[in-house]
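Technical note accompanying the year-one report. For the benefit of new consortium partners, we illustrate the data format agreed upon in the data management plan: each record pairs a sequence with a structure-token string. No post-processing was applied to the example shown here.
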Amino acid sequence: MAIGLAFGAYVQLGLVASLNRPGGNLTGFNAFSGELGAKGLALLHELVPSTATIGFLGNPINPISELTTRDVLAAAPTIGVKLQTLKASTDREIDAAFVSLVQARTGALLVGNDAFLNNRIEQVVALAARHGIPTMHSFREFVAAGGLVSYGTSLIEQYRQVGLYTGRILKGEKPADLPVQQTTKIGLIINLRTAKALGLQIPDRLLALADEVIE
């Protein structure tokens, strides 16, 4: 069973024969990892319109990171920003990525949706606060911990759906017959306390669009 891949990536990577009929021992749920990267970049630029360069942090060990990086790189010129790509698959590399951001005077950071990075919430949020870097994340958990903003699916809902599929498989259903599904819940979460600490004024349009505002 898989979780967190871009919808088309299952087929691109040869993990399933098709989304409706996986045909093997793998199925899962789409977390829009790649698809939402470009939208997250656009929203982050709207929050910090004066910045010319935005960083993108991905995990090079994760094959989806390459697809997401490609999508974000393609979107950057249309949004009007340059992209500084950063890679991290260890705690030390996360630290080094933030050092690179500061040295390059990069104005904001988009954090990729990756299991390793998602398990480093405290480290990423603490580094962003220490260096005064506005950050966009995939999950609410980062914003609740002090990150600036998130745009993405519900991590809790994803795990709930995985649990349901796991139960069905344990009861005898075959992964080959369970279609790859996609979540329908995508939310924009903004932390106003973090925005204030960073000296940012959140545009009224984004406040109106937000599914949750943490004050």
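Partners are asked to follow this layout when depositing records. The first strand starts at residue 2 and ends at 5.
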